[in-house]
Amino acid sequence: MNITWCLIAVWAGIAGLAHSQEIRDELGARNIILPQRRVILPADRTVRQPVTMEKVNARILVNGRSAVTTLELDVRNNGSSLAEAELLLPVPEGVVVKGFYYGDGKAEWKASLMPADEARRLYDRIVARRKDPALLEFAGFGAIRSSVFPVPPRSSVKLGIVYEQLLTLVEGRLDYVLPRTEALSGDAPWTVRVELASGKDGPGNLFTPSHQMERHQLENGTVVLTLAEERMNPGPFRLSWLEARGKKGEASSGPEASVYASPDASGGKNGYFLAMVGKDVRPGEHSILREVTLVLDRSGSMRGNKLASVKEAAKQIVSGLNPGERFNIITYNEGVNLFEAAPVEKNGASEKAAHAWLDAVVARGGTNMHEALAAALSQPSHEGMLPVVLFLTDGLPTIGRTSEKSIAALAGEGNRAERRIFTIGVGEDVNAPLLRRMAEISGGLPCYILSGENLEVKLSQVFRQLYGPVFRKVRYTVCSPDGREQPGRVQDAIPSGVLPDIYSGNPAVLAGRYIGTEPFLIKGTCLDRDNREQAFAITVDPQRIASMKDDFVARLWAARKIGSLETALMDMGGSSSGTEALRSNSKTAELVEEIMRLSRDFGIMSSAASFFADDGSSGPWRRDHASMGSRRNLEGKVMEELREGLGAIALQENAVAKKRELTLNKYNIQMDREGRAVAFDNTAQIAQNGYFNRNGVWMESTVLAMPDAGRAVKTVQVGTPEYADVANRLIQSNRQGLLALDGSVMILLDGETVLMQNSFP
């Protein structure tokens, strides 16, 4: 055996013995590895032991109500001498340690579980000595503490910790939380994989508000969620789902519902709620039959590969329809051509005929969007089917009725069969707001395919979104517990009165603000796959379910509200005679003011409002200050950029993404006017506030809303009793995530402005 490793083994045995005898010195020279955040350096800063975390892999296996979590860490010592380290892992209360392994995993090492109060006392001692507040972010959690282990020089070692917990069923819902830091930067990249085996029926309303996950299902019914990002969202990993409620041989015919609530940070008498209404198609069940009409642009600009790709994608869509579903194809330039007078049933003969008809389509002429849309909407509809229109164009309307207002009105008032219009803009020369408006008015969604993107693949993705509709015509009202309508209990509900169609694995979402703490009901109806009316009722009891730990609810509501205001602002541009008329409209100022307020309060960047803000600043749309002359020239381009081109597409994409946000976007990733996805490290979202980095100081939104004149600021330095007092008050109000921000943080705490120095000078 290698002599070095023999010495390490001997040393490790001594270290383990010391651990078992509780001969510890957390204030000494060893490194403390906090997987959720970073390596906490030794107290003696002159000791150079550069131990780092290289990566963290999390695997969560859920079987029924039991969850087994395995964390694997790669830890490296870049120094020239042996380093000491120990693992300190914050975990939820009630977990059971199953094992801790080091190196090749053949020999298990010791790891002990500390309850939350004992863990907090340890955190306080470490913070006081090491001047690093990172641990206090996890106050309230228990902790797993390992024995001391060696990290050989210029080498990497693998660590593994396994723990199990029994999840508590609340209102039919199970919640899993993996604690992680709120810091915008961490020492190591993470990957997460979840395998969820919850029975034959699978989980209901699966929800991951913290991170965007890829989902697929194994043949045995196990749902697998994966996340592999170089830079995943900060904050804890959260996963919720409904436990299967039906008994063997039974299945509920109505939708399943789950609800989350968070009290307002200002007092708790009001708050925010988020309700999810959905259902998955189970094995052997059928979904609502679809009636799909493809409306394809064949104007001259579609010549070549563009039209060829569209035709091939259209063939795949027709072939992908289920038996019994119906379809039609409409092509248009200055005129309109129909494959059939009305949608026909998909079978071998109709599929073959459709392929041959598409082969004969050629590109030439102008673009009569109004007449093409009218032809699609005037077709006879079939009872009990979900009528869908896929409307594709690569340009602006040039022939017939070309006004944006008239085409949008046709999609709404002229859509008597309530066909859902999914618009597809190809390239950058499209009226992006019009396509978005056509889709939203009808209950569909817009899609933009930029130059260089694979048109055939993107069209297939759009069609896959329409898989498995289970409920349509979903409507709701707000009632008292005894069933009386009580609309005043809810404000700023998004959407209002009507929910989107519900597809398998894609529940409809309702977000809003509740007024008062007494219970209320959200009662709704919908039509199922057999065209029967189904009812659902969701009880919202703020006193029982509202929790500051679910503060993601407030932020998701704010994002959806901002997106709705942004689209309203852009819709006003479609009926305005010019920029000056739009700017002089008092409603414009009101919308911009409210968008900016919400953006500031919650730390959510808005691109649309920047066109009308005085300083023109908002994230990717920030403009340099301009002279009056150049500003007038700039304003002259605003209307064009709001309606056409890559900038307009970016505005629509950003707004629609906010309106549909179901996963926190803590890096404020948005598309800029060049079509690039950009993130912002100078904003942070913690609890229910936004934080903005101004000259190295994180400023809380509550402070930014106050006048600077006469403001008295109390400064507290980490490691002092004054800092400890502030930290305790933050922990009591569930704002301990602020302790994760490096540097200085200025906050409003109990009416006092406090400057926290989170880093030791």
TrEMBL record:
Domain VIT: 37-165
SMART domains per record: VWA (SM00327)
Gene3D superfamilies: von Willebrand factor, type A domain (3.40.50.410)
Pfam families named in the record: VIT (PF08487), VWA_3 (PF13768)
PANTHER family, per the entry: VON WILLEBRAND FACTOR A DOMAIN-CONTAINING PROTEIN 5A
PROSITE patterns, per the entry: VIT (PS51468), VWFA (PS50234)
Highest taxon listed in the record's lineage: Bacteria
VWFA domain: residues covered: 291-466
Protein name as catalogued: von Willebrand factor type A domain protein
Coiled coil: none
